[in-house]
Every structure is written in C-alpha cells, then in structure tokens.
Amino acid sequence: MAGNMELKEKTVLITGATGGIGKALSQRLSKEKCRLAIFARKEEKLKEISTELKSGGVECIYKRCDVRNKEDVKNAVDFVYKKFGRIDLALLCAGVLIPNPIENFDSSIIKNSMEINFLGNIYFLEYLFPVMKSQGSGTIAAVSTLPDRRGVPGWGAYGASKAALSLMLESLRAEAKQKYNINIITIKPGSVKTPMIEKYPRHGAISPEKAADIIVRGIKKEKKIIQFPLLQVVMVRLTDLFPVFAYDRIPIEMQKGEGYPSAEEKTLKTP
Scanning 4, 41, 100, 137, which has the fewest C-beta atoms within 10 Å of its C-beta? Predict the structure, then answer.
C-alpha cells in the first residue's frame, strides 16, 4: 500500500546531476530541505550547481563520478556515507542516448549504452545495498524509459540498455522490500526536454522541472513505478499490445522525421 514518505532533512544522492532530470531533481529537492550529494562527470558544473544550492541554505556536497568506473561509484557512495552517516534516497539519473540505425550498426554503441545506462546503475546498487541494509531502510529510484517493452527502430542500443535496467529493478523490488525495507522505484519518462534529446524533439515533451515534480510526488507516495507524461503512457502501452506481425508492419517512414536519428549520427551525451 502506498505511503506518504517525508523527505525533509533526508540525505539524497543524485547522479547525472549537471543536466536534465538530475539537475531538476537537485533543485526540486533543495526545496524539501534535503541534504544533497550530487555527482556527474563535469566537476566544474557540479561546483557551480552546488554553490547555487548552498546559497539557498541547502547542505550540498559534490564529487566527480563516471558511472562506467566501478571505483568511482564506490568512492561516491563512501563519500556520502562518511559525510552524512546514511543515505536515505538515491536518484540514479545518469544516462546516455546514442542512436544506432542499421545503416551504421556498431557494437561499440551498444557497449557504451550498456555501460552507462545499465551497468552504471548496477554498480550503484551493489554499493548502496549494504548501506541501506545496515540502516534498515532506504529508497533507490533509477531512471529507465517509458518504451521499455518494444524495440524502436533507430534506438535499439538505448532501448536494450533501459529494458535491461527495468527488468533488473523489477527482479529486485520485492526481495529488497520484504527482506530489508528498501524501496526500489523504476522511473519511466517519456519525452522530456533535456539536452540528451534536443536533436530529437517529440510531440508532448515536458520540461525537466515538471518531470522532477512528478517524480518527487511519486517518491513521496512510495510508488513502485513512476511513468509520465500521461498521454504518452497511454500511447506506448497501447502499442505494447500490438501483436508482432502488426508491430513489424508499421512503415519505418512513419517513424522517421521528428525524433528519428539520421543514419550518419552518433551522439554521446551524458551529464
């Protein structure tokens, strides 16, 4: 049954904090008077955001972290625990979008996507679980994607990495809650106006700030899955019901244009 989690004065770890949803969540949670620990690859940007948050009276620490580097991840978790003595909420927002249309199919694109979108989160889970088990509670919310059940032409690397993450979180959810009182939340955004998708605009995209509001409300209600925006949720879930023969017959030309990668593009963006 959904509860009503109090976030005031909680210690919150946020990855991918220098852009998009991660940055918006840092700013949104500063209003909840949380203690923040923010991480990303761009140290100067982290310092800038931390200074801004501190000017508003928020306790905020930061450290560079490349989620592909397991030692970086371990150091990040240790850094927060040594400073605050606990981690109440971890928001895992670091991610990358690398188009991979079949014209330039390249296994290195899939490798990069899996390392950041999947393994980067798994590394954090590995080091967060002992902390939260020892304190008897905690919440881990990781950003997957709304279309995580069907393959989307041109976005196989992204979709596969996010689908793997969704499945892993689901497999851990019941065990984590029943045995250790750890909440596992899967965040499934549709289109959000972040730097990661600025080249691929989608109809109905919402702002990172609105996304952050939805996510914080969902966390407070202790939802297991937080998915948005509503119209895209309905459309994607209807598409999930298409039988294979019907799904495969959707003309690729209908999916090109808005939001579709060109054959020449290889984009790597991660906060």
Answer: 4
Structure tokens given for 141? 């919310």
Q: How far apart are the C-alpha atoms of 205 and 229, rounded to whole Å?
A: 8
Close Cβ partners of 155 (under 8 Å, ≥ 6 residues apart): 97, 99, 100, 261
Query: At what angle are helices 20-30 and 43-55 packed, to 10 degrees?
Result: 20
Cα distance between residue 15 and residue 13, in whole Å:
7
In a domain, 2, yes or no: no
**Domain harbouring 80, CATH code:** 3.40.50.720
In a domain, 92, yes or no: yes
User: Which amino acid, one-letter code, is at 65?
Assistant: C
- Tokens of residue 23, six digits: 């940055």
Alpha carbon 130 to chain centroid, angstroms: 21
Q: Which residues are catalytic?
A: 158
Task: Measure the CA dihedral 205/118/98/249, to 10°.
Answer: -70
- 265 in any annotated domain: no
In order of 18, 67, 88, 267, the CA distances from 63 in angstroms are: 12, 12, 18, 25
Domain of 216, in residue numbers: 11-255
What angle, rounded to 10 degrees, do the helices at 70-84 and 120-135 form?
30
pLDDT along the chain (271 residues), means of 10: 81 97 98 97 97 96 98 98 98 94 92 98 98 98 96 92 98 98 97 79 85 98 97 93 89 55 51 54
Give the phi and the psi of residue 259 in degrees, each rounded to 5.
80, 5
